[in-house]
Amino acid sequence: MLLFWVVLCLDFRRGWPRHLVLPDDPLPTAQEGQGRELAVVIPARNEAQALAQTLPSLLEQSEDYARLVLVDDRSGDGTGALARELMVASGETAEVLDGGEPPPGWSGKTAAAARGVEHILSSPGAGAIGWFLFTDADIRHSPHSIRALRQIALEQSKSLVSVMVRLNTGGWWERLLVPAFVWFFQLLYPFRSVAKDTSSVAAAAGGCLLVSREYLEKIGGLESIGTEVIDDVNLAARVKEAGGSLWLGLSRRMVSVRRTASLREISSMVTRTAFDQLGYRYLLLILTLLGLFAFFISPPLLCVVALVRDEPPAGLAAAVAMSLQTVKYWPAVRHHGLPPRYALSLPLASCLYLWMTFLSAWNYRWGKGETWRGRTLGVGEH
Fold first, then answer.
1. Domain ranges of the chain
2. What's the rounded Cα separation, in Å, for the pair 221 and 271?
3. Lowest mean pLDDT among 32-36, 144-148, 226-230, 353-357
4. 309 CB-near residues (< 8 Å, 6+ apart)
5. What is the pTM of this model?
6. What does the pLDDT read at residue 382?
């Protein structure tokens, strides 16, 4: 256990990616009209509560894109109508499409995004479009975020650029689980390895993802990931396999305004994808659950046991392991603007993620679906 944390702290690849951050103040557009080669696609389902805070942040950046299309994925809360009102009020040219029914086996979000791409490429002027920005409707963009994404893509010759935005941490459960979610993600997919063309590690954050038209077409479009549960990571993997280069980073100022204040909501978000992340392999599931307990949950438990049994060497080893764990986890807590005491919460968060991972496999085994954004999902759907 102690050796694990020593090695993890010394592993540069899995260090917190503090240098892989979207620029807050990107350089001015090099040429007038350069942004006219980019199209924005926003798949949206039941996002009426968020749109008033998020859509204007994109409409205000109209000089950096040629087209903006919001695809209403069969919302029941007036998302489409509100989007049209906001577009008219802004004075900017943008469109709202009806997403319709997704093809059999497709996720609703991917089908909506594909509908937007199809519409843009079948419209006049489609030949000028070289980049697609896919972004969730609950994300409030920072000023010039589109320009910053393009700057990274062009200056670093990247085919796909994505950003993990700051998730909402307004509720207690969010403060406990959201930093751990991001921390485990970058542990599983080290951002530095993602950016290396020689590495097989590929990942992306689907909430804000810029991809070149060249590579989107090279992999067969979004149709190639239509039935995937984890669409963003699979899209990145296909782009990298096709010879593309990736960049995955963080953003200080782009935020999700979505509230997932209850444990039930967060659990639904995790359980619908956790077992898919393990490739539906039960042996890997067992190893993952054992690893979570042995390396992330056990240090504070062993501290207590050693104290009760009066075993100073064992207690010291467990205390050092817990200290290293806290130091390693602290950057994720700080990134989300939380007090230092939350750096001690990783063991508790790990307990809950262990349970959610097990529950994901249990639901898969017994054919139980989840309810997500007003839609009842079958196993493997989202």
1. 35-261, 276-366
2. 27
3. 32-36
4. none
5. 0.90
6. 45
